[in-house]
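Lay summary. Proteins are chains of building blocks that fold into shapes, and those shapes determine what they do. In this project we predict the shape from the chain. Here is one chain we studied, written as its sequence of building blocks.
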Amino acid sequence: MDKNTIKYTSFALNILTKALGSNFKISGLEKLPNKPVLFVANHFTRSETFFLPYLIYKNTGRQIRCLADSSLFKGFLGNFLSSVGAVSTSDKNRDKIILNDLVNANYDWMIYPEGSMIKNKKIDNNKGYTNYTPQRIGDVRTGSAVLGLKSEIYRDYLVKAYENNDEAILANFEKNFNFGYNKKLADLSTYIVPVSITYYPLRPGENKIKNLLTRFLKDIPKQILEEFEIEGNFLLGAEINVRFNDPISLKDYIKNVKYPIDRLPIIGHEFKSNLIIKYFKNKLTYQFMKAIYHNIKINFDHLFAATLFYLKDRKVTILQLKQIIYLAAITIDKLGGSRLNDSVRRDNIIKIFSDEKCKIFDDVFALAKVQKIIEVDQNNMILVRKDAFADDESFHRIRLENSLKVVLNEVLLLKKPNFVIKHIIKTKISDLGHMVFSDIFARDLENYETDYQSFFDKEMSKNKEIGRPFTLNCQKDNKVKIGFLIIHGYKSAPKEVEDLAYFLEDLNFKIYAVRLKGHGTSPVNLKCVKWQDWYDSVDDGYCALRNIVDKIIVIGFSTGGLLSLMLAANKNIKNSKISNIISINSALRLRDIRSHLVPGINLWNDVLDRFRINRGRFDYIDNDPENPHINYSRNYLSGVEELGKLMSKVEAGLHKIRAETLIIQGDKDPVVNPKSADIIYKKIKNAKKEMFAIDSNRHVIVTGEVKSKTFSIIKNYLAKTKIISY
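And here is the predicted shape, written in a compact code that computers can read:
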């Protein structure tokens, strides 16, 4: 084993993985004990033989040796593998080499107990763990457990033989295993560290690696082409999650049984060793394989595949499918004890309801259709094929032809996700939407509570009720099918639109008044947010409301008006639930010339920060708002700059709006230049639109005396468009 080769190889692999964009997520390295360690891992790709030792060496400096398939030990590749310490599975001395390294802590080792790549991930765990491959159907091999146990037992016998001056035992070890006593052995213990490797997403398809290799290599076997296609896509940006689980100290593991066996008279140490190994090998194998299989990281594809599996022969809508998956994800998270990929975290999975491009759902849904797992009819009803998850693909083609079956096999080993999904599927279908709505709203409230506590300021913070998002008329048994999504303005809070909300509730609509991130807490909170955070706040409200209504009308005031326009522009697809937009004093142009100076001031502040100069900064300006009991009286310039970016984004997207639009603008607005309404009206080219001016010298025309004019225009518009009737 050439240590320099390992260093050079690690350096080369580091460059290669960066060039490919390989996305390794590693956890648990802090748990690794001192040498010697026998790593045991699940085996799904050929590249694991290379990247696992590389990752361990890169992050810890530990040099790992591993077993590799004998077919790889040919020519240049064989010489290379030997130089980095790999040993062929057919090497007659392999066990002696491994034992020597583990007993003496020369090197750590990596072994794949499954015995070969399990491309189908078909594993039965009724009594133990049984693998299904063309080469062999049978239990996971116990060889790695045996080697680990032997290394611990033999080391202990060596130490005791030396202490007792037992030359016969010492000579026996030297003759049969080529190692003897040295003083460091007494302080060593062999550890087994189970390693769980999870890939996400599993997507077949052409990729640069496969195309490059097929360009220069001819007559490549189909099996190898399949590996290039799958593993190439993994290495080109898929998440490869590597989890190092809790180490198992073999000294502690066997001590309660080893102690009495060692005291048996007459019987030799070799027979005693075999007794201990026979007693523990299956139990130990089961324990570390359970750690490997049950510590996979649950991702969106897992929940998608399992949901389809339990929906066999049932028809559901796409929305109902999403609701089941969403509720499964948040329930599993709440129950705890499972490792979750970011794709099923609340902040990400909520986007499956956004009616915008959602990669985590769109990609796997398209794959399910292409691989004929599901059929979708003209009414967007999904039918899962009866034989969708049958084992009719060849072992070496299943990852290409029935990828979701492979994903399903992996998650079927986990009791909790399967129990949760089956339970949710039994729920009354009509209740699913309200369950999702309630969870998203609860999350909205939780986020506000957290922000309020984090940014509370005795002088600047208002009463907590002012900033709290709220809903009206959204009970489960309510039959109302139209909802209003209401969005407040910049430096304000949901309290600002409360009168508007109650006015609309009286017209018998469901109401969701969102809180824009950074608002309702204290002014300094606006230093920490981007315009995208405001949009996400609005979009989350849309995601919640669309689960309980057939139509959504988005109504926004000032900055909220901008966000209502952006929301409609981004949801210009056929199945969007937005039917109308009402834009009130939308802040596309501001009157205050100082707003144009903000980018330059922030640049100046950045320069001062870079040179660590505290004097001369301009972080905020104080102002007198129209509603001081609601609005922030301090305006942080970073927030104004984000508002400027939002203005530009909204203006650029107005041409995409398809929903009917009502534009209301105060003619003497002291904050928003009334020309904003004209620009919005002219740039919306593909939708019905109306514009009304209100005689007012106030900016906030949804509160106070002037609100009646605004509400009257809205009511007349709703009647004119037959949304309500007088």
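What the prediction tells us: DSSP finds 26 helices and 23 strands in the chain.
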